[in-house]
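Researcher: Here's the sequence for the chain we discussed earlier.
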Amino acid sequence: MVLLLLYLFSTVAAQIRYSIPEEMKRGSLIGNVAQDLGLDLKRLRSGRARIVTGENIQYTELKTDKGILVVNERIDREQLCGDVTPCSFSFEIILETPMELHPVRIMIQDQNDNPPQVLYPVQTGGSVVAEMVPRSADVGYLVTKVVAVDVDSGQNAWLSYKLQKATDRALFEVGSQNGEIRTIRQVTDKDAVKQRLSVIVEDNGQPSRSATVIVNVAVADSFPEVLSEFTDFPHDKEYNDNLTFYLVLALAVVSFLFITCLVVIISVKIYRWRQSRVLYQSNLPVIPYYPPRYSDTLGTGTLPHVYNYEVCRTTDSRKSDCKFGRAGSQNVLIMDPSSTGTMQRMQSEKSILDEPDSPLEVSSVSFT
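Model: Thanks. This is the structure I predict for it:
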């Protein structure tokens, strides 16, 4: 209803049409709207020109400050129109005060951006599919037909077929327009059972795009003969060769790592054994160890052993006890002449300890 009112109360100008190729980059120029519609840039700004009423208006953008129409989103013709030709979409540019409506149509030109797709024969990764040709086949015998399509349109979708490689190029040919593979001579008993054909499919675009298809042909009269010959087809042999290479490589790596670890372990063992032999045969002097209590038995002190005495005094007792410890191995205090001063000092300390008013003291003196 709104669109109907717009059409009734607006001035409809002539439709403008632009033709652009697909896959244009964002921001690419489509056309100068202001110039093509005869409008002033001030009119576009004052009329608040904008794009309305279109299903695919997201593909374009109107720059009112410059009066141009640009690509806002990449346009893929195959996605937009599919198999429909010609491919186009339309919208309207509206201006206010006074209201004007200007229809715009954008034509999308196809570009050769898709290679041909082979539908038959189906290219399988693991199994071998072969076409049977009896040895009694005459000239022109139809072996198979290569079927391919191109999603592009126009001359970009025109396909041609060409035999690229063959086991025996004098036995088969490929139709350049229809993709039919036929015999060009009589099949003989000398022809190999396994025949491998490589057919290339090209389109007519600029630059041209192509696809390659492999056709396996079995020249035989019976199916068991085909099975016995095709169990070792070239691509299977290549696969086995690659598998053998990787297995040998893996075995070599594992063997190298094992030998390296073995050498390292043996080296460590030998090193430790040699270190133990060096320590065993060394003539280094042995330093005896003495406990701290008997470290002075061979020294130059005044006493051969350590002797302790205890002095106990109390404030309530006028007596003092002096206890001299004896060595565990001797019962007599052994002294030498140089220890006179030490004994005198002991006697003076004893006289002091006999004083009645001395506080409680406990001390330990060691003589060496």
